[in-house]
Amino acid sequence: MAGNVWILGGYQSDFARNLTREGSDFAALTTEVVDLTLAESMIDATDIEVVHVANAFGELFARQGHLGAMPATVHEGLWDTPSSRHEAACASGSVAILAAMADLRA
Question: Which residues lie below 8 Å from residue 53, measured CB to CB, with a gap of 6+?
Fold first, then answer.
């Protein structure tokens, strides 16, 4: 695919939240992010060909380092969808977007 790449929609969780105090966990946060990203972008999960997960410090703070596969664990439509995790400290989001753009242009 050549040409422009467009971001259809997205979602960012509130980074000031404390999931433990809310009685929640990482899977619930992942569900929230996946569901609201799909709703905002108005696309079906089965139309997604590749997933790029951006995360800074998830392994350090939540002891969860295998984040690329997390979306498929909370949304059935993402099973069998290739995914990867991108960590680059505060630039993680940018790195994930650049990787997604490279996939789309390949």
Answer: 67, 68, 70, 71, 83, 84, 85, 86, 96
Residue-wise pLDDT tens digits, 23-35: 998 889 899 999 9
Residues of the domain holding 45 = 19-105
**Total of domains in the chain:** 1
Q: Is the separation of the CB atoms in 52 and 86 below 8 Å? A: yes
CA distance 1 to 90: 29
pLDDT at 71 over 70: yes
| Separation of alpha carbons 10 and 33, rounded Å | 9
Six-digit token pair at 89?
């400290």
